Give the backbone structure.
Amino acid sequence: MQKRVGDLAVFGALPTFSEPLYVGRPNIGERARLLERFNRILDSRWLTNDGPFVKGFEQRIAELVGVKHCVAMCNGTVALEIAIRALGMAGEVIVPSFTFIATANALQWQGITPVFCDIDLRTHTLDPRRVEQAITPRTTGIIGVHVWGYTCDIEALAEIAARHGLKLLFDAAHAFACSYKGRMIGSLGNAEVLSFHATKFINTLEGGAVVTNDDELAEKLRLMRNFGFTGYDEVSYIGTNGKMNELSAAMGLTSLESLDEFIAVNRRNYLRYRAELRNVAGAQVLAYDETEKCNYQYVVLELDEAFTRVVSRNELWRILTAENVIARRYFYPGCHRMEPYRSNLPGLQLPETDRLAESVLCLPTGTAVTESDIKIICQLLKLIIGNGGEARRLLDGLGTGIASAP
Ligand code: T4K
């Protein structure tokens, strides 16, 4: 373990970790049960198209979330696209720019304009006051994103949506198994979208779902997911193919059996990071509300401006990457700074989004990261953050362009 800034890998030493440590290393669950399920599926030769494993997975998710309907999909992005279409969104829809690009693309993909709205830095989610200001006669809906499992200001958004006759959809890709004022995420707004991508703490390899209490909407979602078929030779909607397959559902069911264990590991990691970094001036690990249910799947380090004025977040990210600590800059640089939005919206100013996108780093966690890994990662962080001035001097000496690197 490096004792001096000059000994860091970015300056030529060997990396602290011989193997990379990732943010999104998939949780596997009970391998024997998974393989047993895979074998049953192969033996049955029923591989997809609303099979028994998908039905079982949907039922389990609906129970856990406390909703009437779960419609499983092939991934979270397609689930967003189908939910947007089934809700009849059109024209303009208000979304945060501080989100994964899928949220915005799911709109643009179907010719709907995402209207990027700034966030509230306290919640990292849509600022309701600004949402209200962004409404125009073309607005048909709002998509709130529960970033990191931090929930949107649900009441304020619901009130605005109701007053303006807008649809309200939540992108809850980060927030499965989290609660808001005691209610499980998934049961809010007109519908919510979940992701079970490999990097999510519960995964179906690739997968997603729309959850809702609205019977009519659920019926539409099911039709749209399956090309619009209402009978063997009868199509009544423009549908697509959004179906989840049986192997994915088997992975999901197996994952769900370890849900408590995965959350316990995530929480243990989060608390270890919090404890190790609690006295570090210049950075803090974002706190989760312990009175709510939380999946703790993201450990988010927020850097103070006093530190980033000396060593930028991007430089810190480069330094950690050189040590094989593969932290992620979610959601840098913000959707509005990616194509086609950057070119379409040249003058758009989202100062809070920019500030957040340049000050946070997601740290490695999940079942593939041990407490001793975290201790070492935190020692590295303390070394760098505690010696920012010296790091700056050495970085300047490198002359590799690290300071301006993306
Ligand atoms: N809305 C929001 C708010 C979302 O965050 C997402 C997805 C969506 C919607 C869309 O849902 P999906 O259509 O994806 O179901 C990852 C995930 O691909 C993406 O699902 C996720 N959000 C996003 C936050 O993170 P990348 O570009 O960071 O993926 P990647 O390949 O760099 O993986 C992250 C880390 O995980 C890597 O450093 C390596 C590790 N990894 C990854 C995979 C796939 C593994 O160790 N094993 C693996 O199999 O997007």
